[in-house]
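User: Hi! Is it possible to get a structure for several chains at once, not just one? Here's what I have:
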Amino acid sequence: MIKATVIAAGEGEVPTGIWLFIPPDYDILWSAVALVAIALLFWKKVLPTFTKILDERTELIQGGIAKAESAQAEAQEALAEYTRQLAEARAEAGRIREAARAEGSAIVAELRTKASEDAARILENAQRQIEAERQQASQSLRTEVGALATDLASRIVGESLADSARQSRVIDRFLDELEASTADQR
Amino acid sequence: MRAAGSAYLGECALITAATNHLLAASGEDGGFPIPSMGEFFPAPIFFEGTVFEFNRMTLVRLVATAALVAIFWVVTNRARLVPGRAQNIAEMGLDFVRVNIAEEILGKQHARPFIPLLTTMFFAIFALNITGVIPFLNIASTSVVAVPLLLAVASFVAFIYAGIKAHGAFGYLRTTLFPSGVPWPIYIILAPIELLSTFVLRPATLTIRLMANMLAGHLLLVLFFGMTHWLFLEAGGALKGVGVITLGAAIAFTVFEIFISALQAYIFTLLTAVYINLSQEAH
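Assistant: Yes, the chains can be modeled jointly so their relative placement is included. Here is the combined structure:
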């Protein structure tokens, strides 16, 4: 009964002895068909495909590692560059500060010189003006004294010489005045 | 290994003879079912008497082949750089043969040309073995001699090819039959032993080891499942209880058969790699 379930097709001829180990031709044929099919599958399709994939994977991983290494090298290079630039910038800033300070003091000194020059110039101008005014004043004074003298002379001539005493007083006063104005002028 | 192989050959022949005798004697008393060798030689279905004769064993063999081809075809067509689950399993199997068998024994350089052969062997043997525990197929087509013999011939051709390629035809025969470092009178007995062990016993043991393992496994499974069936349905009284034990044993042997299927595939492939390596190396 187990045979009926397990072996649906029933039993064929059972070989004995050495014929157990010598396959019939049809068995060789169908075995060869099966094995050749499997061999072709692995030889022509499966192994080339998976070899390719493995190679690609290896390449990808190696490429990734190389890329990471180069990226790291680049980053380090960039860092060194930045550090260098930073140092340069600091040095330059120091230099600029120094220069500015020097320039500032130069400007202050220049301004100071200029201011004192200005002051001197203003002072000179003022003195010159004062001198001019003084000369003008003495000029006008002289003109005025002449007019006064002329005026006085005419007044003396015009008035009757009634009083010789008054006459002599007028003359004295005039001379005094004249003397005083001359002393002023000196 | 060689001594064990030849001992194994003798043992197998004895067991086979004894089994045949026992099976013939068991007769058809209708009682306890005993599996017979007839299980392995089913009646033809198509083309009886021609070279294309097709029986159940052939059918199981082609079904297993078709399944293996289909699985690997699909997995390979879907293969991507970043593997999915199925591809991972397939790659694990392929890597096992490539790294753990071929490259470990032959070295990376020598392994390359033999990887297709070894991979084919491993997966073909496993696929044809595992049908022994798959419901409705229930027989391993490696349990008749054709497939193991063809694979052994392939192994034979491969290791002779490797030897000739490494040493030349004459050099290969010399290194094989007259290994160096032996005083010359020993060659009188060593050469015939090496001749026999290398060119006869190697393929013979490869064939018989695989075939006998799968044959014995199938007989054990049929025996335990048949006993369980008989004990549950036809035995009376307390004997039915024994059926639980035989059922447990049957299940245990089914698991064991799965293991054996993989193990035999591994051993066959491993030994082929070892033989190729022995041919390549000068003795």
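Chain A touches chain B through 45 residues (CB under 8 Å). The helical segments of chain A are 2-6, 25-158, 164-185.

User: Great, thank you!
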